[in-house]
Design a protein that fits this description.
It is a single chain. With about 80 residues, the chain is of the alpha+beta class. It contains one helix and four strands. The protein has one helix at about 55-70, and strands at about 5-10, 15-25, 35-40, 45. It has a four-stranded antiparallel β-sheet with strand order 1-2-3-4.
Length: about 80
């Protein structure tokens, strides 16, 4: 499995610091690409569906970065049924 790692960086008062997570792009057996978001310990946080083109993976990363920071948490669990 080929892995390309794109490191997230944050600019703070003129410094560039390494953030805890990273996006990993994997080439999977069907010739497609898959995106994996991991934390600082290497634990998988999210895995994408297969993308046919690398450009689509990069757009997926861009969308995750933009939406994760402003995303609203919606709890869709059903409340327990009364007996």
């Amino acid at each position: 499995m080929q892995t390309v790692q794109l490191h997230m960086q944050r600019r703070i008062t003129g410094e560039v610091r390494q953030m805890a997570g990273k996006f990993e792009i994997h080439r999977v057996s069907n010739g497609c690409y898959r995106l994996r978001l991991t934390d600082s310990h290497g634990n998988t946080i999210a895995v994408s569906p297969d993308y046919k083109h690398l450009s689509a993976v990069k757009e997926g990363i861009k969308a995750l970065r933009e939406n994760a920071a402003t995303g609203i948490v919606v709890d869709l669990r059903q409340p327990p049924q009364a007996s």
